[in-house]
Design brief:
Blueprint: H1 27-36, E1 39-49, E2 57-62, E3 84-87, H2 88-96, H3 99-104, E4 108-112, H4 120-132, E5 136-141, H5 151-154, E6 159-163, H6 169-176, H7 181-192, E7 197-203, H8 211-224, E8 227-234, H9 240-245, H10 260-272
Parallel strand pairs: 2-4, 4-5, 5-6, 6-7, 7-8
Antiparallel strand pairs: 1-2, 1-3
Helix pairs in contact: 2-4, 8-10
Bound molecules: iron/sulfur cluster (SF4).
Iron/sulfur cluster is lined by residues 65, 67-69, 72, 74, 77, 113-115, 142.
């Protein structure tokens, strides 16, 4: 993929630490970009991903997130101006170059972050334009700002990958710093629209592995009726260096990845509720 200035837009991996790329953009311009969606702030692109939705995909990682998940592996995406400013037309052109290949590989475009709906106008314009190219569109979101998308804008999204982090108001606030209710409301709205969903759940031993909580997430998820798959994502420490480099206090310094058995047990809870889980 082509470069934007001195920093390549395409990252070698989403684990690249990227900061201050949009620092030179005047505050007024940032505000106008957020209001219009004509420009987005992007951490990077990844091409050829097979783990961010169906088939082989281009993933566009946006910057900006209101949440502070204890296990976040990309805290450099929290600040919008850590991202590169990219006109929406340019972002669409980049996807367009790959559109035939993406169709052949039964893939598409995934908009992720950060939290892409922090830049909801950009997300809406970008996804609408990419969908018009005939490319399958997916958004990965925590759902906090789901109400910012109109029903017509939701129609431009083929699949929503929704993160459900834990269960219960207090536990959710402790884990993410934000309430769980908007996420659950967004899930119900998507279900009412018969929108296909994948649910992403990060398994951290000692933090998100309470079987009762997982059972409640499974019950809620199964009740939605449009969830095609649950992904149980094992916690890892690949983002630890980012917390250290950014001078952030990292609560999971000593946390370990779940064993394959622990991951399988969590999947089984979802399967018992009638869901496909892996
Ligand atoms: S929602 Fe995603 S990007 Fe935001 S803090 Fe949580 S894990 Fe990180």
């Amino acid at each position: 993929m082509a470069d934007t200035g001195p920093v390549p837009l395409e990252a070698k991996s989403p684990f690249e630490l990227r900061v201050h790329l949009g620092d030179g953009v005047p505050e007024q311009t940032v505000r106008e970009a957020l209001a219009s969606g004509d420009m987005g702030f992007l951490h990077s692109y990844t091409t050829g991903s097979t783990v961010d939705g169906p088939g082989v995909r281009i993933v566009v990682w946006t910057t900006g997130c209101m949440w502070r998940c204890q296990y976040c592996h990309n805290p450099d995406t929290w600040t919008i101006t850590n991202g590169l400013p990219v006109p929406v037309t340019r972002a669409v052109e980049e996807v367009s170059k790959y559109r035939e290949g993406l169709k052949i590989m039964k893939g598409g475009l995934t908009l992720s972050g950060g939290e892409p709906l922090m830049q909801d106008r950009f997300a809406a314009k970008f996804l609408t334009a990419v969908k018009k190219l005939g490319v399958h569109t997916t958004i990965e979101t925590n759902g906090l700002f789901g109400e910012r998308l109109s029903d017509a804008e939701l129609d431009s999204i083929d699949l929503v990958m929704l993160g459900i982090k834990t269960w219960g108001t207090e536990k959710h606030r402790a884990l993410t710093g934000q309430p769980i209710e908007p996420t659950l409301e967004f899930a119900k709205r998507l279900a009412a629209k018969r929108k296909p969903m994948w649910i992403r759940f990060v398994l951290v031993p000692g933090l998100t592995d309470d079987p009762d909580d997982i059972a409640k997430i499974a019950e809620f998820t199964a009740g939605l009726g449009t969830v095609e798959r649950v992904e149980v994502l094992p916690f890892h420490q690949m983002g630890k260096f980012k917390w250290e480099r950014l001078g952030l206090k990292y609560a999971l310094e000593d946390a370990v990845a779940p064993t394959p058995d622990q991951a399988e047990r969590a999947c089984d809870v979802f399967r018992k509720a009638g869901l496909r889980a892996d």
